[in-house]
């Protein structure tokens, strides 16, 4: 059996685990929109170069208007809306808590598919949703007494809003991209999705007239290196892997495997900064991931 999609999903999750920690620690002084604009630009340049060498043109030929529409919409929803607010969440409540709550998005994918496309929920689906929500609540309600990942962050409805918007954007972006990728190469899909994301962010910059904010990284070597990593690995490479996962595996399977990032981010945070992993975090992550597997 071909497991190309599943392997791609797990590979993307591994890259994203370190991405959250880097964004949290190395880009605190960079506005989320600026971070998103620069890393998407880096990824788009890389995809365009590869497309040029592969096809002799900067954009693959014979892409239909329908494919352009759905992938551009996916980019706006996933990159402009989803990732911008996810980066904001990294800065407001930390990478570990953000990523663990973000684990909720496969459930939202299932719900969107149910309400928009009539995909029915079985008793196992309902049980899965309960398990995922229970696991997330365990993590959110845990407040370590020592200087762990959460002590510097105030957990309120306001600080949880960015990650909630990120979940909605990512879920809608995944569902919309699934349609176009049925007859579109993953490289072309990734490129158009990046264009859509950049278009949305550029529109926000233009409306708010905040182009001067792009100067914030000047002279900040650590932030430039971090953004380069995010652009090359977490955006270009992991983004391409996620499109491969969505194309070759069922949406529920792909999203479930990509959501294993919460499990990976806990040991990653311990390896990089020796942050303590609490038993309740482990239990919450296991509960959430157990629920997600029932959705497959």
UniProtKB/TrEMBL annotation:
Keyword match Membrane: yes
Keywords linked to the UniProt accession: Membrane, Transmembrane, Transmembrane helix
Pfam families documented for this protein: EamA
Residues spanning the membrane: 6-22, 34-53, 68-87, 99-117, 123-140, 160-180, 192-211, 223-246, 252-271, 278-295
Domain EamA as annotated: residue spans: 4-140, 165-295
Subcellular location: Membrane
Domain of life according to the entry: Bacteria
InterPro entries, sorted: AA-Vitamin_Transporters, EamA_dom, EmrE-like
Cellular component GO terms, alphabetical: membrane
Keyword match Transmembrane: yes
Membrane topology according to the record: Multi-pass membrane protein
Chief location bin: membrane
PANTHER family, sorted: EAMA DOMAIN-CONTAINING PROTEIN, INNER MEMBRANE TRANSPORTER
Family per similarity comment: Belongs to the EamA transporter family.
Protein name: DMT family transporter
Species this chain originates from: Criibacterium bergeronii
């Amino acid at each position: 059996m071909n497991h190309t999609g599943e392997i791609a999903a797990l590979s993307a999750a591994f890259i994203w685990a370190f991405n959250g920690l880097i964004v949290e620690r190395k880009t605190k002084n960079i506005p989320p929109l600026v971070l998103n604009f620069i890393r998407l630009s880096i990824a788009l340049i890389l995809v365009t170069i590869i497309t040029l060498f592969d096809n002799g043109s900067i954009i693959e030929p014979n892409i239909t208007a329908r494919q352009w529409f759905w992938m551009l919409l996916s980019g706006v929803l996933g990159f402009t809306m989803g990732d911008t607010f996810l980066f904001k969440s990294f800065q407001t409540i930390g990478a570990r808590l953000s990523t663990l709550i973000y684990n909720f998005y496969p459930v939202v994918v299932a719900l969107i598919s149910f309400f928009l496309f009539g995909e029915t929920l079985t008793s196992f689906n309902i049980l899965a949703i309960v398990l995922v929500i229970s696991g997330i609540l365990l993590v959110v309600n845990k407040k370590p007494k020592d200087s762990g990942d959460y002590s510097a962050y105030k957990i309120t409805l306001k600080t949880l809003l960015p990650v909630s918007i990120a979940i909605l954007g990512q879920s809608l972006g995944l569902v919309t991209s699934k349609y176009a990728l049925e007859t579109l190469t993953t490289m072309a899909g990734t490129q158009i999705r990046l264009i859509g994301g950049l278009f949305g962010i550029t529109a926000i910059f233009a409306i708010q007239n905040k182009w001067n904010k792009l100067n914030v990284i000047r002279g900040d070597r650590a932030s430039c290196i971090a953004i380069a990593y995010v652009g090359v690995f977490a955006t270009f490479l992991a983004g391409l892997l996620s499109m491969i996962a969505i194309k070759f595996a069922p949406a529920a399977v792909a999203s479930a495997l990509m959501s294993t990032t919460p499990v990976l981010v806990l040991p990653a945070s311990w390896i990089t900064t020796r942050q303590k992993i609490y038993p309740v975090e482990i239990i919450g992550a296991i509960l959430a991931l157990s629920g997600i597997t029932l959705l497959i």
